[in-house]
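Hey team,

Sharing the Sugar ABC transporter permease run so nobody has to redo it. Sequence (299 residues) first:
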Amino acid sequence: MSTLTTSASAPAKGRHFNGLPFIGPSVTVLLIWMIVPLVMTVWFSLQRYNLLDPTVTGFAGTDNYEFLVTDPDFWASLTNTLVLVGSVLVITVVGGTLLAVLFDQPFPGRNLARLFAIAPFFVMPTVAALIWKNLMMHPIYGVFGAVARALGLPAIDWFADYPLLSVILIVSWEWLPFALLILLTAVQSLDREQLEAARMDGAGAMAQFVYIVLPHLSRAISVVVMIETIFLLTVFAEIYVTTAGGPGNATTNLAFLIYARALLQYDVGGASAGGVVAIVLANVVAFFLVRTIARRLEV
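Structure output:
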């Protein structure tokens, strides 16, 4: 009997597999890839380091952070970052939800319409910014200007009169297809029998949308908000190509402020302090978003 027990338990012990030697090198490289830049950024944020004046060196302590938080440009860039992220999220989530419901309905050319609606997501940010700047929003050569003149209205110089709104429209155009793709997939997974039962009970289209479709999309919307927020905090190319942070600091966000400090003012210490603040902000936002999504997934 003991021999049988030993032979039966041997395969169970043999199935134990230690994968640490295989995943260890990858995890080590990943940690080095993440920790070394972070440590260097924190270190430079505590130093006096300006590329234009090599004689200014030494330990700065919290001077770079104090200068950063007392600089009006920092608070303007923080406000612009929050306005940009919040506005794009509202436009993409609301627009993506409505388009997802629309493209879920059968109509001629639906597949082609879906393709055209999702295509902008694959356009590089620099190319998208150039297209909108020169072909759409230019007051003389742009499509918007031509339409305004055809209606007898004065053409709008978007990047001079409404710079932040212009950037929001460009970024929303880029990210709306992503929201549409995720939400359309979620809409297609909705139980059609549930909608049919609601229709037979007398529920109209609006009631079905509010009480059935939207609750079903809540998890997908949470995922869209989390992923977009992480990327929208680092919007740079669209601002650099169109407005260069101006006029003044009207479109300067945290990412562009860090760039300006590091590569225009050559203040490596101040730029590193801004980078640390941006890292803290991104992690705080990610923490709350992940908790919210995990709570929804548990429901």
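Residues 4-11 have pLDDT under 50 and may be disordered.

Ping me if you want the raw files.
A.
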